[in-house]
Amino acid sequence: MSNKAIILIGGPSKGTRFRPLSLDIPKLLFPIAGKAMIYHHIEACSKIPNMSEILLLGFFQENQLSSFIESATKQFKIPIKYINEVKMLGTAGGLYHYRETILQNQPENIFVLHSDICCSFPLGDLLRFHLENQRICTIMGTQVSKEYANQYGCLVRDENTLELLHYAEKPETFVSNLINCGIYCFKSQFFDQIGKTMNDIKAQQQLQLQQQQQNLIEYPEIIRKGTATENLRLEQDIFVPLAGTDSISVYLYNGFWRQIKNAGSSVYCQDLYFKHYREHKPEILKSGENIIGDVIIDPTATIDPTAKIGPDVYIGPNVKVGKGVRIVHSIILDSSEIKDHACILYSIIGWSSSVGPWARIEGIPNYTPFLYKEDKRKGITIFGSGAQACGEVIVYNCIVMPHKQLDRNYTNEILL
Ligand code: GTP
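Output (structure tokens, whole complex):
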């Protein structure tokens, strides 16, 4: 039995809410808990027996991903390949267009993972469930509180047969608090189903076109908007019509899960990974006199012994941290410098940035699960790469564009 995994990585046009950090690096490579966002996915895939290949499907320039792919391939000893989608084909359109590559060597089980999620990736349990239930597709679902459910794909499952009865993508009214996690397991026959759906949509569009030409449609605005037929969405175009046809099972996952939509959400996701590491891989967390809670520090960083770090802090390669510095719930990226007695809370300090002595850089945490609805009064403070804060300034709940110099205090602003 052979298995394969595909990670849907999108492309530059999909990472806009991740700015200013996605200006320097594709969103999927941004470090969360010290590892690239999709490293966590790849690590989980690598633990599945007989995983023959991991494919990254998206529309980034190949050279932006090549060194990551090379080093992950070496580390996990599994072929990792990039499929460069010619144009944005949608979450199902790309899978179908490249089906021959995906189905090469006849994998029996095909995992498909969204790149912009964080969880414990229980792929082994998902696979066991998928094999037991024998449907052509299994969706991993999790329960969220009722008030946030309609911001996600909502699932209704039959509690006896575990079949997906109904799927509603971001419904206007409450449907269910069981939501789609963006992790699936397919049998190869699922690709035939995508093909059938695509043909149905084509036929429907053809009919609409003919009717339009004959002026038979009074309200042309109801026609499915401006998509080439190849652009297909897994959720709306495939799961919605397939629900209730005994084709899809829903696996219930009870662990942590978050979407990583905007840059600030990586701080919350990092906290979740750290908690997971504390239970499952405590050896990768740093300990020491001035280390509080869960912290990862790259071995090439220089930290003054009087600096107090943590909880929930990642410090990247070649960072310098001065005397008496305090850092809490933050991500400090490569080659930045945090000078003496500066204080950083709930912030991301971008690559090669600097924070002057006695400066205070602070965000306001917002722990709601629905992280990408912007609430302007709350947010992680983010420094784009090369930003500089002078000594003693206070920067509170701000987004700072790359290379900006801050020589006074700022609150609740986007600093261009
Ligand atoms: P939004 O609320 O609009 O973000 O919807 P969503 O949370 O359902 O996410 P979306 O469907 O946009 O993306 C889910 C995953 O698929 C992400 O990891 C995207 O990067 C990826 N993705 C989205 N569109 C495409 C596409 O056309 N091609 C590929 N290869 N990946 C895509």
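The CA atoms of residues 150 and 174 lie 6 Å apart.
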